Automatic annotation (TrEMBL):
GO terms for biological process: methylation. It comes from Gigaspora rosea. InterPro entries: Methyltransf_16 (IPR019410), SAM-dependent_MTases_sf (IPR029063). Gene3D superfamilies: Vaccinia Virus protein VP39. This is Putative methyltransferase-domain-containing protein. One of its GO terms (molecular function) is methyltransferase activity.
């Protein structure tokens, strides 16, 4: 993940990150371990039944492991329903916005794209990992972001991913590259 985010000095103080659709919170916890003040989000039932406790336990372990370096990792868990108005609990813009496997339904695309827009600035780095289940859904998401929100979008190439993941022998990119990673940039208009 650190290699995908190399567009800024990751060791600056007080960089913020928000993970959308966190599920169990793996990506958000990775971002937290890299030093970001991270907000992990999902729907209320996921937050209450999975995310809140998982983040609490892992944050405790992470902070115990880092205690020797006197680093205190920060993570918050919040309910975020993309179909609702963004509440005042959130503090946009975030420096980094990450999401994986959130684009799976045509109905959610306008809400997700608006959420990305509302949480970002032209300086935000937005990374979306999408499993290629349905090309129509992915193409609709990309078109929505370009057309209605003027995001600049670039796909992270398979060659770049190969370089980043060099040394992992179990990966057969040509036959199993079902995940696409996109970098979105809000255009300042």
């Amino acid at each position: 993940m650190q290699n995908l985010l190399n567009s800024r000095n990751l060791f600056e103080k007080n960089l913020t990150c928000i993970e959308l659709g966190s599920g169990c919170g793996l990506l958000g916890l990775v971002m937290c371990s890299l030093g970001f003040e991270t907000t992990l989000t999902d729907l209320a039932d996921v937050v209450d039944n999975v995310l809140k406790e998982n983040v609490r336990r892992n944050l405790l372990i992470l902070n115990q492991c880092q205690n020797l370096e006197n680093i205190q990792h920060k993570a918050l868990v919040k309910v975020l329903d993309w179909t609702s108005q963004l509440s005042s609990d959130f503090n946009p813009p975030y420096d980094y916005i990450v999401a994986t496997d959130c684009i799976y339904s045509l109905d959610l695309i306008p809400y997700f794209a608006k959420c990305l827009y509302d949480l970002s600035s032209d300086k935000s780095v937005i990374i979306c990992g999408i499993e290629r289940r349905d090309p129509i859904v992915i193409d609709s998401f990309l078109n929505e972001c370009k057309k209605n929100y003027s995001f600049n979008i670039s796909k992270i190439s398979v060659n770049k991913l190969k370089k980043i993941l060099k040394g992992i022998n179990d990966l057969n990119f040509e036959n199993q590259m079902l995940v696409e990673i996109y970098h979105l940039k809000k255009i300042n208009v």
